[in-house]
Predict the structure.
Amino acid sequence: MSAQAPRPIAPLLTLAAATLLIEAALYVIAARTPPDVTLGVVQKIFYFHVGTAFAMLLTMVTGALLSALDLVSPSDRIDAAARSCIEVGVAFGSMVLISGPLWARKSWGYYWTWEPRLTLTLLVVLLAIAVLLIRGLASDGATGRRIGAALAVLAAPASALIHLAVKLWGGNHPSVLQGGGIQSTEMRIAFWVSVAGLVLFAAALVQTRFRSLRLQQRTAALELDLSAIALRRAGRGQA
Amino acid sequence: MKTHRIWARALALAIAAVLAASSAWAEAPAAQDLSRYKEEPVPGGALLVAAYMAMWVIAAGFVGWTLLRQQKAEAALRELEDRLEAGAGR
């Protein structure tokens, strides 16, 4: 095994596609979409806010499902995939939790309110951070991995509830997609191109992080093998 | 390895070309009248800029952190290889 192993082309291609789509989205948002009639220019936060929320939900749910799979049949590969999804989910969740309140300040008059969708989003991000902290701080790696995976599974129903929160409990969040809130063709193009670009960007980050975690796992396994060989040699030397 | 480097350079060049072309194109329809939004009591433009900046700072931070972790893992792997080679030489 060499540290100079060939780099897979897939993350690079995903990143290139994401860059092109995000660039196209930024152009349409900046130059083609009209400012919202009531909210003005701040409405343009919406395109990336919803795109990052889509990416967050997808990565969190995938991470939760992979964690469940890792609990049933443990595998380093699945563990690395689950962990990379959750890490990217936290990054995108932070983007959602920053861009949302900035939009809300103009739209609702305040940055934060404990309405169902906001509260659930915060809870899911905190849950994912807790999973990563448990994984990072547990002295026994295997136990930390199991507890982290069990906790990560909870992110799946919680993410589904984020999606359904407005329907189930109401709240301040507008129902833009179902309620016909996107007024023009340019707005629809900007919206879907942003969503596609950001989801692809999240996929590229997951691929990159997955590769990095696999490298760390292999290094740790090699270190263990090397220590075992050194111990055996030392034992033979004493005999 | 060389093929991947060529691919990476070609992709970077393509992205740079698209960025340059679209930036030039984006300058054309600057006809949106945003003057009435400058007088708002809550500055929407500042909130918009802050939101986009925060998102890109987080994205760049995550990418930077991932690269650092990757470099650390690669360094650890190189050190292991050196130790293995030194052990084999004995």
